[in-house]
Amino acid sequence: MNANQGRSPAMQHFASDNYAGICPEALAALLAANDGHVRSYGDDEWTLRVADRLRELFETDCDVYFVFNGTAANSLALAALCQPYHSVICHQLAHVDTDECGAPQFFSNGATLLAVAGEQGKLTPEAIVEVVTRRSDIHYPKPKVVTLTQATEVGTVYRPDELRAIADTARAHGLRVHMDGARFANAVAGLGLSPAEVSWRAGVDVLCFGGTKMGLPVGEAVVFFDRKLSDDFSYRCKQAGQLASKMRFLSAPWLGILENGAWLRHAAHANAMARRLAAGLAEGTGLPALFPVQANGVFVRLPGRIEAGLRARGWLFYNFIAAGGARFMCGWDTAPETVDRLLADIRELAAESA
Amino acid sequence: MNANQGRSPAMQHFASDNYAGICPEALAALLAANDGHVRSYGDDEWTLRVADRLRELFETDCDVYFVFNGTAANSLALAALCQPYHSVICHQLAHVDTDECGAPQFFSNGATLLAVAGEQGKLTPEAIVEVVTRRSDIHYPKPKVVTLTQATEVGTVYRPDELRAIADTARAHGLRVHMDGARFANAVAGLGLSPAEVSWRAGVDVLCFGGTKMGLPVGEAVVFFDRKLSDDFSYRCKQAGQLASKMRFLSAPWLGILENGAWLRHAAHANAMARRLAAGLAEGTGLPALFPVQANGVFVRLPGRIEAGLRARGWLFYNFIAAGGARFMCGWDTAPETVDRLLADIRELAAESA
Amino acid sequence: MNANQGRSPAMQHFASDNYAGICPEALAALLAANDGHVRSYGDDEWTLRVADRLRELFETDCDVYFVFNGTAANSLALAALCQPYHSVICHQLAHVDTDECGAPQFFSNGATLLAVAGEQGKLTPEAIVEVVTRRSDIHYPKPKVVTLTQATEVGTVYRPDELRAIADTARAHGLRVHMDGARFANAVAGLGLSPAEVSWRAGVDVLCFGGTKMGLPVGEAVVFFDRKLSDDFSYRCKQAGQLASKMRFLSAPWLGILENGAWLRHAAHANAMARRLAAGLAEGTGLPALFPVQANGVFVRLPGRIEAGLRARGWLFYNFIAAGGARFMCGWDTAPETVDRLLADIRELAAESA
Amino acid sequence: MNANQGRSPAMQHFASDNYAGICPEALAALLAANDGHVRSYGDDEWTLRVADRLRELFETDCDVYFVFNGTAANSLALAALCQPYHSVICHQLAHVDTDECGAPQFFSNGATLLAVAGEQGKLTPEAIVEVVTRRSDIHYPKPKVVTLTQATEVGTVYRPDELRAIADTARAHGLRVHMDGARFANAVAGLGLSPAEVSWRAGVDVLCFGGTKMGLPVGEAVVFFDRKLSDDFSYRCKQAGQLASKMRFLSAPWLGILENGAWLRHAAHANAMARRLAAGLAEGTGLPALFPVQANGVFVRLPGRIEAGLRARGWLFYNFIAAGGARFMCGWDTAPETVDRLLADIRELAAESA
């Protein structure tokens, strides 16, 4: 049933950066944490240390919680920011709206996502103002939150001035700002700025900092820069089935990638692989990237025969129809050779098609 | 802030079987699974294999889902069995009622837990009949599910005849039967019966089979013996933030403990340690166990000075007030020496007190 | 603060058919029911009688429940048809999506409304197929229900063949069919068919039959034609705060309008007033109705100065931006003179503008 | 199917004060409001006037909302005061816990009711402290609200000093105070104090002021004395299906009973009937009331043959098992003759039994 039967089990793919396994630094920390009896539910030294480390990384006294996955991280954070009769403004390609099976609505018990259009997968102040001012009657959920994805679902990133403009607009309309940072590391690496500049200094209230796509086995961090918003958030996590008993195995891997900068190196590598791919596509095949390659994804409109040919050769990748093309994601472990092999296959297929 | 500062970091405790780390077999499988790119969200060979293995173990064609923790496993299973206006009958010491911060109510959007008394932490047919027939008006949630814990919260186990009697009663009143199996392995080991005999053959519809307390890093299995009940359950898991992207790291460790019987060996060991502790207490200190020691927990009413003395010496354990005493849980890695050291400390303290 | 200050308090408006009061037949029945002590919560003779009367009206053995308003009727019915991880397909102008403040999502604990386009406010089989087949992965809510509004939000009606085509399509894809009948009476009157032909004979599973806009003080009926779907629905109503204690005051008014055909006469009158208005607009002002006038609403694109002029003269009506113009609703009590006065004002304003 | 078949349809009962119909003053106001077209959803003069009238009655600038029934009033108010992972402390006889089919849990998406014992149906500061301090770990819902019923479910009332002591205790533990005032009027009449003294001056944050049992056809008022707590409450009502379109028919009846003191006269009458009944029981039959008769209910332990005999004679009343006896409720229209007839029947039956 699997397209890559018969090929090497070690074949790499571009379907998602979550196809990659655990990076060495995270694994080493996990193994180091597997020593003897340790208090459960987060009352352990690994968890305390990594929370401190994140406060250092962000250069601010933020509140940090570890949950199992991105669906839960985003949904719990949004639920903490709004009531069931409120609405959350998001981009129409936002993962929270398109790929979480209604999780934000479930966790918030009914909050509405209001999806708006925007170039390059990005929200704009204008679009936010338009949707916030469209209705003000009681028959329509009241806007309360703006959520944006950094890096975006199409591999672009918000610059601090763009974030600031959005946050100022949000503030002016009484909205909170949430950032879905499933690929926050890739955004930070892509921008070459500090994590603080790309988040709270630009007006973000809550960040869901993705761990899995950075090379962890499981787990994301919810980071509250505005600590008033995290009142009783640990109870919220517990009730929602998001409090790990053996928390050390969620938190220790974070230590592993944070303590030596591995998180940023891996992200930079994935970004470099995406640029390598985009460059190869543009040069070798004349297939331009649909969006600026600012993080670890490349989107391209593939001729049908090339797409079919790639799948026949065992490559796994998604068609992101709403974004207008095929999506190729690079991970922390994507090898240059893998990129080059993909490019070679595309070139071959293009030549056959011609 | 930690009572055991200054003592060996490797000191073992009796607070919970979730203080233990990853058992070697699970860890080996996790490491083996960390190889290259693998499809996400459960569409991988590890997950498929372990589901098959569980079907073999249970000798039936059950549906299997892997979620992150026991709170979620129980809550999602119960939500699949009832509507918000239904009620779930449980023992008054049931973990779902006392220690999940309202999670069953959250996941089901309002279902009511009706807690009843029962000797040795066990539900009885009589208690179920009493609560089911108490009210039948529309102003009271309609009973729909019986949930029982195997092994119970006080370290006892239901025998198959007890389960069958409960299940027959449930069936007769239109109720489904859910089993919280956080320590199902300990129950199986304690009874010396097959998993099937202790679950579906005795009338259980859904089992939440605990992995964490058996030595996994994270994750539980929800096993539907009545497959009609699992309609769209994968959607339910996804929406509720319980679908792991790198699922292989939840499923492969299960393989590790299932393939060679490690799960049962570890459970039997933990049970043996509990019996060793109970025997030592009875003989050496005259402190009888409050409940038959049929799984991996020992409950005992400790004189205040002994309890204080143990804590002063760095021992971590819970007072389970509702059960009437201190709780000592043994894990897969609890060493006989640890048990003996605890017993020696208790004996010393008892002598001092005398 | 009210635009019509200074004018006669008896001035009629076109903002909504819920601006009208209680019709004489409903009021007479309410007064007749206000006699002595009567069992509460629906266990009274009025409620039993009107449920029987509805079964006669629909010529089938349906289950009938009375709730307080349309928001609740639609939301509870939809919640009975789907789980939180399911989706409900609706027209993009559907009231459930645009004007119930997220109520369907709240009552269902997170179900998703998938809004699609369609001419004249109507869903089509093609649009349903498109949205049902767009995605089938677990990251997207699974379609489970089609909801359609009869009469539609833009004053058109579905013919039985249109309903049947939709219901057949729904059935073929495993979907249930719900009808928002806030103005069901107007649809029946407009089509000149029996209630059965316009509902269950055409494939509708559940109808929310609007009472308020027919001249009742409060209350709607939820009619389950497929009785399997109404399991424990009375518990659902009770828990959701929709079980009236003095139920007779919700049900008796239904008797008043059903027993002598008043419901249909009033609806026919409102429809006639809408046609009178549309005809007058077309003839006298050259402003064509945006949609066929098949029920009791007229939609027209008003020049800004005419709109402003009408408001200055105290007329209340809505701009239904998504529908492309101003909305004029006629009620059971809309007088021909009111229509004529409005038309005269529009003609005057048009003349001034010219 | 009805026990009183064959008897006068005008026979009065003691089952509930909601068996009574609409009182004359409410009906007159309803009829007066049924005049012409009126803005919907509460933007009408009746609703504005009655809100002002309630502010006068309570001598404070409170926020007022009208909803359909008591289940919704209490549940929405509680949902406004807590999050899903919080708990609400109530008496074990509290209607919100025993007779609303899990509504508070549904509207709050999972909040827990913690029921405690207390003499005469009343909470005490001690009981609150006990339950609040019992647990403080994250696995147990965090207490956030105290709810008390005034008059209580067993016909007693809280004096202002009792309320103040409870409110002070609540405040000291970070809890809000909610009052279920389904029979608030009876409590005010029973105490002979002002509504303010019995509510906010004694520390109540939110009162659900019952209208139905005072003689309205439908509807209760939610009164926020702490206005910060009512943020966006109108959206909450709308989403939860509790915003009446023809709001005037909910609000105008309130005007009818408030403007001339009818609300208090009716309550005082009902209370007097209860005292008449209790006195007659004590004197004529030696059956003492189980609780002080401070409002409009009488509870008495009836010998089985007397109870059966009353039912055989067509009397409707409830057995309130948890309260220990039969419950006899008096309404605004309970006639002295009805009380006397019941007493005569009891005396006869007692004589037969003797």
Q: What are the main properties of this structure?
A:
354 residues, 41% helix, Aspartate Aminotransferase, domain 1, Aspartate Aminotransferase, domain 2, alpha/beta, homotetramer, 15% strand, three-stranded antiparallel β-sheet, 2 domains, seven-stranded mixed β-sheet
Q: What order do the SSEs of chain A take from the amino end to the carboxyl end, as H and E?
A: HHEHEHHEHEHEHEEHHHEHEEH
Whole-angstrom Rg of chain A:
20 Å
Q: Helical content of chain A, roughly?
A: 40-55%
Which structural class should the secondary elements of chain A be placed in? alpha/beta
What is the spatial order of strands in the main beta sheet of chain A? 1-7-6-5-4-2-3
Mean pLDDT of chain A: 95
Could you tell me the strand content of chain A as a percent range? 5-15%
* Largest interface in this structure: A-B, 59 and 58 residues
CATH topological fold name of the largest domain in chain A: Aspartate Aminotransferase, domain 2
Biggest β-sheet strands, sense, barrel of chain A: 7 strands, mixed
Q: What oligomeric arrangement do these chains adopt?
A: homotetramer
Pick out the low-confidence regions of chain A: 1-9
The CATH superfamily of the largest domain in chain A turns out to be Type I PLP-dependent aspartate aminotransferase-like (Major domain)
Distance between the termini of chain A: 31 Å
| Count of DSSP-assigned helices of chain A | 13
* Strand segment tally of chain A: 10
| The top level CATH class name of the largest domain in chain A | Alpha Beta
Could you say which overall geometry of chain A the principal axes of the C-alpha atoms support? globular
CATH architecture of the largest domain in chain A: 3-Layer(aba) Sandwich
Total domain modules of chain A: 2
